[in-house]
From TrEMBL:
This is Sister chromatid cohesion protein DCC1. Belongs to the DCC1 family. It comes from the Eukaryota. Pfam families: Dcc1. GO terms for biological process: DNA replication; maintenance of mitotic sister chromatid cohesion.
Length: 282
């Protein structure tokens, strides 16, 4: 009797699920009230409860909506994040805020605008700095720094806001609605959907789009592939790659995962398709 064994080698990615779970325990809410049930963590505390080096932790935190407040690492709640983003977009489209435009976002102007529009809200200055650093590029000219709106970053954030509001959209309605909520002068590009949404052509309802953020998918490769094959029975490698980018940082890692885990067929045109998990993994 011949036994076949499959070895799944460890991927070169850093699992962040436990880190997110810990940070969610002490989220910074928009209407924050003191609660003894909330648990706050310093960087040192987090290093004690997550399996990461300090460098890995810092890199993971840089990709999350977090600030350091009173010595603690605080994740902004989805509402806090969305409200800050909405205020930034409103200011960009407000003729009465000449210091906040696509080509130049004045940090002090933004702070003053937030105070003016939200007089009863004490927004931490750290959150304002995070907002600008996340959605702007720093341009240095003649010894001065200017913040320019990053079109891709702000467009992807507004796409996320819109898609999270419904199970799915007809694609043409999505495009029209998105253009209405983007700042004037910011244009949507299909490439901004990568790793953020799932676009499908359905026989009954036509082209649709739904929220599918790679950051929210299961960290276990097999579970992630199961989810993806539940959405679509046949995948081209180029289409599925965007949902595996964190697990497979290189082409070699991607090929290794797909060869080890997926059944493949070749069409009459010579195109390779992924058609499901290998039976031994089911």
């Amino acid at each position: 009797m011949k036994n076949n064994f499959m070895e799944l080698r460890q991927m070169t990615y850093i699992p962040v699920l436990r880190l997110k779970e810990k940070l969610h325990e002490g989220e910074l809410e928009w209407d924050e009230e003191f609660s003894r049930d909330k648990k706050f963590y310093t960087v040192e505390d987090l290093l004690d409860v997550v399996q990461m080096s300090e460098t890995e932790l810092q890199k993971a935190l840089e990709r999350m909506p977090v600030i350091t407040l009173n010595g603690y690492v605080r994740m902004l709640s989805a509402e806090f994040h969305d409200r800050l983003l909405t205020m930034l977009v409103d200011c960009l489209d407000d003729d009465e805020e000449p210091g906040i435009i696509l080509e130049s976002v004045g940090l002090e102007c933004l702070k003053e605008a937030l105070k003016k529009h939200l007089p009863d809200k004490n927004i931490p200055v750290e959150a304002v700095h995070w907002l600008v650093e996340t959605y702007c590029d720093v341009v240095k000219e003649n010894g001065t720094e200017t913040y320019h709106i990053n079109e891709k970053a702000i467009c992807r954030a507004k796409i996320s806001q819109l898609l999270r509001a419904a199970v799915k959209f007809e694609y043409n309605i999505f495009e029209k609605t998105l253009q209405q909520i983007l700042p004037l002068g910011v244009e949507f590009k299909d490439e901004y959907l990568e790793g953020l949404a799932f676009v499908d052509d359905e026989l009954t309802s036509g082209r649709t789009i739904r929220y599918l953020n790679v950051e929210d998918l299961p960290e276990e490769p097999i579970k992630r592939l199961e989810l993806l094959f539940s959405l679509r029975q046949r995948w081209e490698e180029s289409a599925i790659q965007q949902y595996l980018s964190d697990l497979c940082p290189t082409k070699r890692h991607l090929n290794e995962l797909l060869v080890n885990c997926c059944r493949q067929v070749t069409t009459v045109n010579g195109e390779k398709l992924l058609v499901g998990l290998k039976e031994m993994l089911l």
